[in-house]
Structure formats: C-alpha cells, structure tokens
Design a protein that fits this description.
The protein is mainly alpha-helical. The chain contains 15 helices and no strands.
Length: 293
C-alpha cells in the first residue's frame, strides 16, 4: 500500500482522525489498522490536519514498524526528521527504523547519542534493551534494563521483563526478587503471586515449596479461576506431604491442602471445555493422590 488513494468525505476524515487520536491518548497500538488508516489520512488530508499531523506521523511510523511496512515507515520518519531534525523523538524513530532494518550497531549509536543529551529518556533506554534482546545478548539486556529500572522503579512492565530475562538465564533468585517488588507495588494482582510461586517451586526444597504453596493459595484467593495456581498449590502440597523431611503434622496439613485443591480442580474439570479436560486429565494422571487421601 502506498501513500495515495481515493479522497474520503469529510465525515470519514473526522471519524478516522478521532479514532487515531483516541488510540494515541489511550496508548493503544492496533498497529495494522493504525498503519492503514493513518496512511490514507496522511495521503489525502495532510494539509488539513494542522499541527496534529506530526504526532500522527509518529504514530503511523511506529505502527508501520510493528507491521513490517518499512517503506511506509521510512516515508513517515523522513517527514518527521525533516521537520524536527534535532528532536530526540525523531532521532529515536530513526533508531527504531535502523533496528527494523537489522542495523543494530547503528541503532545503538543513535540511542547512545540521544542519551548523552537526555540521560533520563526512558523510551530510548528501553530501545537499548530491545537491541540486546534482538541480538540474543541477554546479559547486556539485563544490564540496560537494570539501568532503566534505577530511574523508573514503578514501571511494573519493566520489572516483569527483567524477571523473564533472569529466568532465561536461570537466575531464579533474582527473578524471584523482581516478583517480590511487583507484589509490593500491586498485592492484588493474582498473576504476580502465581509467577513468584512458580519460581520458588522451580528452585525446590521444602522451605521454598511451603512458601510457594502459600503464594499459589493467595493467587487462588485473588482469582478462583486461576487453574495454574490451583494445580501449583496441589503439586506443592503433594510434594511436601510425600517428603521424608516433613514432620507428621506437615504431612497431615498438606494432605488436606492437596485434597482441597484436587476437589477444586475436579469441579473445574467438569465445567471445562473438551480441550481443557484433556490437559487437566493429564495433570491428575501424574499424581498419585485422590480427594479422599
């Protein structure tokens, strides 16, 4: 698709403009539709958009990069750079284009140049992380992301990304720390409790299993439909009850916890779709435990 097309009526122009504006304000990507609608709007109504044309160019640039429409991205980014040659935002867009073209070294140089004049530019710091991830250089991505978090500690998405990077490196203790921070920021998010518990379960050991069981239970309390957390609770309780290192009291308690989780999963099993039944059935087949134990 090129930047040419039939002229739309004014009411269509206003409708499309308002839709794209709302997506910008709400930080919604909708990349495919944004690229298509924005391309037509810029082709036919650029002169009527006033100053709004520049944020629209930026929006369409990013959407085009998301969709792999590099020719459209080049046109939009070129327009922005001609209008704002010294702007860090136009330079960032140029760096993103270099990334999309596979020229990671040039993109890295572009971003580092921006950070010399604007060291707290979070968007550019994140692009450096993306470059290292694109090169599969996870240690460097972790280093850059830690720099970003030092300045933007309340960014939950960054903490989540850092945790996943640590998991890739099998550094589970640091991944667990990331989820501890996430739970502190948002203690009512069931997935944070679940993911923290999964890391503890992966680390193993009776102490970790006991803590993991509690966090799986909290995830279930926050969201009773969290099947993964229920299953995690069942596994933790089952392993604790089966361990020779557990006291008689712990074995009794955890047998009850496992039985309760099994009853809940049985109930979910009966209400599930056929494909879900198969998954849950495989879970149960791997466990030598019944609700009567």
């Amino acid at each position: 698709m090129v930047l040419y097309g039939p002229v739309w009526s004014d009411w269509v122009r206003y409708d499309v403009r308002d839709k794209l504006r709302k997506w910008r304000e709400d930080k919604v990507r909708n990349s495919t539709e944004t690229a298509e609608l924005g391309e037509y709007l810029l082709a036919n109504y650029r002169r009527k958009l006033g100053d709004e044309v520049w944020p629209l160019f930026e929006q369409v640039s990013i959407a085009s990069l998301d969709c792999g429409k590099l020719s459209l991205a080049r046109l939009c980014i070129h327009a922005v750079r001609e209008q704002f040659p010294q702007s860090s935002r136009s330079k960032r867009l140029h760096g993103m284009l270099e990334e999309a073209e596979g020229d990671f070294e040039s993109a890295k140089e572009t971003y580092e140049e921006i950070l010399k004049g604007d060291p707290a530019n979070g968007l550019v710091m994140k692009r450096l992380v993306a470059i290292h991830k694109g090169k599969n250089d996870i240690p460097s991505a972790i280093k850059e992301l830690n720099k970003y978090i030092a300045s933007f500690m309340s960014d939950s998405e960054a903490w989540m990304e850092l945790a996943e990077l640590y998991i890739q490196e099998q550094d589970y203790s640091k991944a667990a720390f990331c989820f501890e921070e996430l739970i502190l920021y948002n203690p009512h998010h069931h997935l944070y409790h679940q993911r923290y518990a999964e890391i503890l379960y992966t680390q193993g050991g009776i102490d970790n299993l006991e803590i993991a069981r509690k966090y799986f239970a909290q995830a279930v309390k926050l969201n009773s439909n969290n099947i993964r957390a229920l299953y995690g609770m069942l596994l933790c309780a089952y392993h604790i009850a089966s361990s020779s290192k557990s006291t008689a009291k712990k074995k009794t308690e955890n047998t009850k916890y496992a039985s309760w989780a099994k009853v809940q999963l049985d109930y979910k099993y009966k209400q599930s779709e056929p494909k879900d039944e198969e998954v849950l059935g495989e879970m149960f087949d791997r466990l030598a435990i019944t609700s009567g134990n």
